[in-house]
Amino acid sequence: MRKMQRRNDINMKKTTEKQTIKLLRYSAGILALVWMCVIFAFSAQNNEESSAVSESLSFRMVSSTGHFFHWNLDEGQLREIADTIEYFVRKVAHMSEFAILSILLFIWLGLWEMSLFRRGTTAFLATSLYAASDEFHQLFVPGRAGLVSDALIDSLGALLGVIVFILLVKLAQVLKSRKQKRKAQS
């Protein structure tokens, strides 16, 4: 009787886990669409608005770092450093935007039976296609330019996002397997 109850509990737990994972995957699909809208909104900013955002972010990063490390720099020196790193900050931000999108798409694609490699490739290709369309969109925004190099940078972010996420998934699977083995041995 206890064995049967335990089996029922285990089956119920597995069913609940599957439902939770399915809900997570649907949510990731919705979040991917929302994130695409966020990217589109950033790309719709004209050159002045876009520059103001990245200049402000760069300045805040340098100011915070200077405060944390007790640098004695005046505002002019902080602005000079911020201007120096702004291009790098912009490109890392673009890579991060598209890494997040590729991860969300990767999770969403888990609704269908396919290998991790195929899911990763599909998420990467879909994100790269969106990056190309985003650069095309920028051709119609005043002061902005759609650049192949930017689409490649965005695609690199997508690739890195998928690779890092797959590695984290594999690590979690290994840790879970080890935990189950230890539990079975005790």
How far is the N terminus from the C terminus?
23 Å
The protein's oligomeric status is: single chain
Helix- and strand-based class? Answer: mainly alpha
- Which residue ranges are poorly predicted, with pLDDT under 50 across at least 5 consecutive positions? none
Return the average pLDDT rounded to an integer: 88
Number of strands: 0
Helicity range: over 70%
Question: How many helices does DSSP assign?
Answer: 5
Mass-distribution shape: elongated
Largest sheet: none
Defining key terms:
0% strand; 186 residues; mainly alpha; elongated
Topology (elements, then pairings):
Layout: H1 2-43, H2 47-68, H3 75-108, H4 116-138, H5 148-185
Describe this structure in words.
- By secondary structure, the chain is mostly helical.
- Helix content is 85%, strand content 0%.
- The protein has five helices and no strands.
- Helix 3 packs across helix 5 (148-185).
Write a brief caption for the model.
By secondary structure, the protein is mainly alpha-helical.
